[in-house]
Structures are given as structure tokens and as C-alpha cells.
Amino acid sequence: MRAEHFWDKTPFPTHSLYVHVPFCAGRCAYCDFFSVPLGSCSSSTLDSYVSAVLEQAAKWTHMFGAGQFATIYIGGGTPTILGKELLRMLVQGLEPYAADECEWTIEANPESLDKEIVRMLADTKVSRISLGVQTLSKSQWPVLGRVGSIEDSLRAIDLLKSSRFEVSVDLLAGIPYRAAGTAVYQEYIEAPLLRSLRAIAGKVPHISLYDLTIEEGTALQRRIADGELVLPDSDSLARARESADSLLAAHGYIRYEVSNYALPGHECRHNLAYWNMEPYLGLGSGAVSTLAYPAEMHQRMLGSMVRLTGTKNLNHFIANPADIPPGVEIIDRPTAAFEVLMMGFRTAKGVDASRFSALFGVSIFKLIPSSLERWSKEIIQKDNRIAIHPRGFDILNRFLVECLEEMDQHRALLTT
Fold first, then answer.
1. pLDDT per residue over 227-241, tens digit each?
2. 55-89 burial by CB neighbour count: b if 16+ within 10 A, else e?
3. All domains of the chain in start order, with CATH
């Protein structure tokens, strides 16, 4: 099926917006996201980029009937690297598309966050700042090759702690290490992670703890391949995760998603929209949109999803911001159904079984009955929701593989 088939149809309502700001002061050793070194850009390029995003917002929200947005997330890259005035221009330019109770999040790196930017954002509708810290360990910091310093991170946390914003801090688990021997686990895996968490827990209402993924072609991957660095094994990483869970639980944090912890009432609504597989619009060079279309105009059943990936040619985007990118992916109903299960089971609330049936015309209990039976001791059912108990989050992939295999056997239920 060609993408053009969808452009004359009205998609399901889209109430979440992601805006990509690709500029970074430098590339971290583990990063494979689309980013552009700030040193290669003139100030006029940054000006033109912000203007292009706002032009795209005006045209795409109209084209796809998107908004008013309940969540807006400005990520990157490093949005705060735009500086006070351009960041203000971007935020204020997006305000007309926001609902009254919109959750606004801006990602920030500590070295580019200062009092002036915080004061400026406090005068806008931005409600949430996600701070990329990754580690506060002196042994791990140089391994990640990050710009800035641990001192910058601690300063930024203290600065935001006294602000009006909801604050989230990103950390990484499973960072490679240089040494080997009997003391490896305690000294190089668990202790640095707990040291970082102890410095943050209680100071911010939300903490994201992601397992570091080693991407092909990154500087970190090359150092591991050369034997300079060693990756923690899965058992050590699981033990460190257990220690992290215990520490955060003692401070009142709830693990509401595989990699996310929050004090009650401080969950990230934008990320919850992703995990619920709600449609979202992505603006900016390299941004991804996922739009959902009904099977027929007179019914709600999901037909397919259309995923758009914006051009990573910065100059082309600036010159033609409203163009539909060539990278259009049609996600058929069986694939979409698995994505809904995969993302939903990442959360403590799990999958809404009633919504799943309404979207796909088939019950979860008919689609994966054997998987649900085999994992019954780890499954919680409440109020039409099916979830994996948080104690099973770290072995979630095993469950999802079984679900996918069983769904393949019952594929006819999703294609008739």
C-alpha cells in the first residue's frame, strides 16, 4: 500500500507533538541520534532552523488535523543550546497549538542550562525540564565522552530544584568499564550507579534510568570491539537494577515503566502517550511522526499507521520544511498490534484490553492465550488492563518474544 492512499483521509486525533532540535556542543561516545555539531553552524542557520520548524508546524498541523496538543516535547540534540532568545521564539511560536493544560517538556544538558534560560522559560508555558546527566561517577564520566562536567550537572540539578518546573533526570545503567577482576561488580557496576542515584533521589520528582545500548559505529562501540572497555554482563546489570529499584523505592519512587521512576502524580504524560501508542506529530529535521488511520471512515477500527521520518539533510529541511519526506513507512495492522502490546507491557498499567479490541477487532485473550497462560504468575489483570508485574520488567523481552511468535500463528485474526 502506498503512502498516498492516506493523505485524503482524516487520521485519528493527534494530541502529542515532538520537536527535534538537532544541534549539540559535541557528540557523546555512545550517541547515534541525528545531531549537528554546533561549531559547524552559523547563528543564521539556527535562526533559519527555528523559523522552518514554525513554518512546518503551521502547515502540518493543518494537513494532518493535529492539535490542540495535550503534550509538547522539545528534544534533541540539545534544545537549550539555542540560547535564550531563539528558545523563547520557538516556545512562543508553538504556544498557539497547545491545549490549556498542556504538559510542555524541554530537554536540557547541564552545561548549556543557566539562570537566564531558566528565568526565561519560567515566563513561558513550559512546565517540565528533562536534564541529561547520565552519570555522576568520576570513573564513568570520561567513558561516556560527554561535554561539560559532573560539577555542571550538580549545579544544574540545584538550580532546577528551586525552580517551578517539574524536573526529570536521565541516567544510564550498564556503562562499560576499563578494569577486570573479582571486584568488578561492586566497584565498576553497582557502586557508580548507586552513587549517582543517591545524589539525585529526593531532589527531583522523576528519574529515567536507561540501559545503555551500544550502537554500531559509535566511538564507544569501537573501544569495546578493540578490547579497551568491557560491557557488564546481563546478570551483573540485573543485580545493579535490583539495588537501584530498592534505593528508589525507599525514597518513594514508583517504577511506572521499564526505565522510568516517578513520585506519585509526577509521571511524564508525553512518554505515556508513546507507550500507549497514541498518534503523535514530529517536527524538525530527523523527527519521526506516527499517525493512525481508521480502516474505514465510518468506524474506529485501526487500519494502519503511517510513520514519517523527516530528512536529516539540514539544509534541505530549512529550505523545504513542509515537504512530506520520502521515508514513509506503512505499518500494517498485525505489526501495529504487536507495537501496541510491546509498548503497553513496558508500563506498570499495562495494555488496555478494551481499547485493543476496539482498535484491532480482536481480543488480546484470543490473540495470545498461551503466552498469557504461561506467564500467569507474572501477569496482573485489573479494570480491563493486562500488565506484567514490575518485578518481571527486566525479563520482559522473553515474554514479548513469545507473544510475537504466538501472534504470527494467529495472524489471520488481524488480517480478515
1. 888 888 888 888 899
2. bbbeebbeebebbebbbbbbbbbbbbbbeeebbbb
3. 3-272 (3.80.30.20), 333-416 (no CATH)
